[in-house]
Design goal:
Layout: H1 2-11, H2 19-46
Length: 62
């Protein structure tokens, strides 16, 4: 599966990466996204659900 994903992504403009590197990139992105979501949730709880400073997740990330 990752080989096919890498081939499809490498066919379009952008960096060419091996399947393993594509898998690592997605894994790292997911870790970063989860960390941001945890921080945003903690901020909301800290402000008792009221308005909070900072950005939320994008529509794509949500």
């Amino acid at each position: 599966m990752w080989t096919e994903v890498a081939q499809n992504l490498n066919a379009i403009n952008g960096p060419n990466k091996a399947a393993v590197k594509r898998q690592e990139s997605l894994s790292n992105w997911k870790k970063q996204l989860r960390a941001r979501a945890r921080k945003l949730k903690a901020e909301r709880l800290r402000t008792s659900g009221g308005s909070f400073s900072g950005e939320g997740l994008s529509e794509f990330e949500d």
